[in-house]
Structures are given as C-alpha cells and as structure tokens.
Amino acid sequence: MENRVVVAVIGLDQPGVVACVSQVFTKLGCNIEEMTQTALQQQFAGIYIVDKPSELSNDALQAELTAATSAKHLRLTVVARDYEQPKSGESEPAEPFVISVYGQDRNDIVGTFSRIFGAQGINIDSLRAFSLGKDESMQVFEVSIPESIDTRSLHKVLLERAKGMQLHLTMQHRAIFEAVHRVAIDQ
Predict the structure, then answer these.
(1) How buried is residue 130: exposed, middle or buried, by Cβ count under 10 Å (0-12/13-18/19+)?
(2) Which residues does 37 contact at the CB level (< 8 Å), separation at least 6?
(3) Cα separations (Å) of 88 from 44, 49, 93, 95, 130?
(4) Coil, strand or helix: which one is 164?
(5) Which residues lie closer than 8 Å to 40 by C-beta, 6 or more apart?
(6) Please, are residues 127 and 142 in contact by the beta-carbon 8 Å criterion?
(7) Measured between alpha carbons, how far is residue 152 from residues 19, 124, 130, 142 in Å?
(8) What is the pLDDT of residue 86?
(9) Which of the pair, 152 or 174, is modelled with greater confidence?
(10) Predicted TM-score (pTM) above 0.90
(11) The sheet that has 4-12: what strands, in order across it?
(12) Which residues lie below 8 Å from residue 76, measured CB to CB, with a gap of 6+?
C-alpha cells in the first residue's frame, strides 16, 4: 500500500475511544503502523501513523472517523493529513538523553528549555510535564542531541539556566537513565 497518513484524535477521554478509531481503520482497509496515546486530566490524545488504500482520501478517512466517534457519543476532534517523510540529510546522527527539570512551578519552564534545545538543533522526542504537589512541578524532556554537540558544555549551560530560575536539573543518556530506573521483578 505505502500510502501513509497521520491521524490525530483529541477530546474527552472515555472508554472505547481506541476501539472505535481502530475499528474504522480496519473497516476501511487501513493498517496502523505506529501509534501513541495518552490521557491528561481526562483529555485523550492519540496519534496514529496509518497505511491506507490509495483510493481513500484523507478527507474521507477523517469524515468516517468523525461520523463513527460521533455515533458512539465520543466527543473527539479528528484530523487526517499526509505523512511527511523527512528529507534525507536533514538531520545528523544523535544520541538520546533524558533531561529532567524540577522545582517551584513556573509558567516559563517549558518555553525556556525548549528554546535552548531549538537553538542548538536538539529535537524534543517526548515531553511530559506534571505537578509534584505544593506548587512544584517536573518536566521530563526526552531529546536527541546531535553528536556534534559537546554534551558536557550543554549540561553546564542547562544547569546554569536552571539554577538562575531556582530549579534543579538532571541530564542522563537514555541508556543510563533506563538502567538506573529499571525495576526488577522477582518471580
């Protein structure tokens, strides 16, 4: 098939959202190649990379999904758009890191650190921000740092910025982060 489309589904989280969406894909002859979904404060967000029949337009797919979710009284918004293949040579090899910023909650944490990452050509692969209670928060950035960037110098810049904002920051290669945070389950 090789006719990829990106489908985004957002709205009120309710039982049956994933079932409804995936059943429409099956009915229309689409294959889910990859997906991710999460719920934040009872709000559903799902992104699907779908391989669809070439005769099925994005508008028709979106209309079918919207009709099916509406029929099941799921309050969702659906967007279907062409999958964009990155141009070859646009990105250099990169290493995965996990950067955690935590402390007194502020409205400029994500903006400040994402601006630093963007200026350095560092891609944010995943970001999670959540409350720690008592007006404290944590932001966990999973990033891809290009191999040409000196990670020690970057770490120093990030630490200085965090300290200037009266925040704490940790930075670890993702392999080390996962090894440290792995939980062993005895059987």
Answers:
(1) exposed
(2) 18, 44, 45, 46, 47
(3) 33, 20, 12, 18, 35
(4) helix
(5) none
(6) yes
(7) 46, 18, 27, 17
(8) 75
(9) 152
(10) no
(11) 31-40, 43-51, 4-12, 76-82
(12) 9, 10, 11, 12, 17, 44, 66, 69
